[in-house]
Design goal:
alpha/beta; 12 helices; eight-stranded parallel beta barrel; 2 domains; two-stranded antiparallel sheet; binds magnesium ion; TIM Barrel; binds ligand LIB3CWND; 279 residues
Amino acid sequence: MPYKPRRSALYMPASNAKAIAKARTLDCDVVILDLEDAVAPDAKAVAREQAVAAVREGGFGSRELVIRVNGLDTEWGADDLAATAAVAPDAILAPKVSTADDVRRYAGHLGGRAIPLWAMVETALSLFRLDAIAATAPETGLAGFVIGTNDLAKETGAHLDTLRTPFVSALGLAVAAARAYGLIVLDGVYNDLDDDEGFAVQARQAVTFGFDGKTLIHPRQIDPCNRAFTPDAAALDWARTIIAAFALPENASKGAIRVDGRMVERLHLAQAERTVAMA
Ligand SMILES: CC(C)(COP(=O)(O)OP(=O)(O)OC[C@H]1O[C@@H](n2cnc3c(N)ncnc32)[C@H](O)[C@@H]1OP(=O)(O)O)[C@@H](O)C(=O)NCCC(=O)NCCSC(=O)C[C@H](O)C(=O)O
Ligand SMILES: [Mg+2]
């Protein structure tokens, strides 16, 4: 499968027509039209109509277009799923997934259409069910996890700091569960819109955890996020050095070699190839 960048995934309320129009010009890899928590109850119907119209009209170029629906336990969830499944966005994002059966319920509302499902990891219960939730991928079309640190903080009573100290183990386990079943995995949002330094610190932490990208709430977070998730010149040089070393005839049958004083194995070759593809 060719590498598809999901470094920056910008949420916007689908009730905000101006934001949707602006998204077509922004440098994010993924656009998430939100029907859920960013939309007030009396704007839910308009948001749904505008999200559906946005998919129909297109104009988002190479950006992936994802719609986050309301939960199936709300009065809007089933209608959101029916309307969005009919226009088939690049993925449908299901909120507040707690169990494997929750994913099956969302998948059951897609009318048999093969639309990738992404699941929010944002309930306390989900943290104990990550393996079972991710394992539904072949049967449900589950293709991604998106972390929801705001809801996790709300449910657990934890205080969110820049480095998400209360959730470090949860973040690591979510990445591991996603990788175990071939899902993509996106980090949560950074709420402090004017704190560029804090955002950069958190984005670097997300890269360290192995996330594919980070969800965002404002256009000003896109460039620093893309920078954080794009391999820098040193990483790219090192990746190319590893690829070149394994391409030498004398290394053709070796599993581990010495490169610039470091042990390098074929698993590092695979990582190096991914780095070059990302760059
Ligand atoms: C947070 C905001 C409400 C701030 O809005 P505002 O103060 O109006 O922003 P600015 O004046 O700075 O906007 C400048 C221009 O940029 C456009 N803009 C702003 N935000 C977005 C956006 N997200 N997408 C596209 N365009 C955006 C404005 O329209 C201005 O444009 P222009 O007039 O042409 O200059 C607002 O940023 C916002 O609504 N953000 C998204 C909120 C959202 O979607 N939240 C839901 C997801 S977060 C979450 O719930 C995660 C998870 O579930 C969890 O539990 O953690
Ligand atoms: Mg949430």
